[in-house]
Amino acid sequence: MQKKQLWAILLLVFALAACTGGKKAGSSLYEKSSKTPEEISKIFNKFDRLKSQLVGHFSNRQQLLEENSAEPPQEFVVVPIFQYDRPGEFWVYLELFSPDMKESPLDQRIEQYVQIDRDSFRQEVYYLKEPEKYINAWKKSKFPKLDIRKDLIKNPACDLTIIHQEHKKGSFKTLMPDEVTCEMLTSTTAARYVDLMYETTDEGYTMWFTFYDKNKQKLKATEGPGLSFLRLNPGDEGYIKVGKN
């Protein structure tokens, strides 16, 4: 092989590496882990599809515009936190915030998803002992060091069961718990307990909340079709290009 041909091949290899690997290596957890609805729709393993539906950047802006709702604008980001999960497990970090106050999140938590069988899964909720250490961690290329035993507080009363909906292929929904048990450990209002139900699709989440006081008396519940949080994709209004917003 002539030297010119060899150099041409080497240059092509380096160029391809820069195109395929350079952006990914320098991007944030947020950008690396998100998939579009079209990409997610091609995943046929149910747990893998659920995991992809859970992860990304979600906003209720579309529902607020369409319904002239009194609900406040809110967004949340969900990213995987461990590069290698044990089989049948998936760990994520969730951060909820107002669009104009991303550096002051309304909620932060760790969630673990465990496969029960082919069609059902369990969501487990953990609180961070020092949440301030993880604010906007989704903007980083690697999640800060986290020790499951030392850095987290498990709240087993808030575990949820998630099932695949056979009548609505490619979607998943939580089951309503038998009792009111999920205490909001960080609540500063009269609401002390909450029941959460949600549905996930390739496009996003639909959520229903029921809040209770310290005596487990109902205070407020989401009405109608629920709260819609749609996935934001690159190019959508509100999508965060890390380093430019």
From TrEMBL:
The keyword Acetylation does not apply. Keywords: Signal. The keyword Repressor does not apply. It comes from the Bacteria. Pfam families: CpeT. One of its GO terms (molecular function) is lyase activity. Residues 1-25 form the signal peptide. This is Lipoprotein. It comes from Saprospira grandis (strain Lewin).
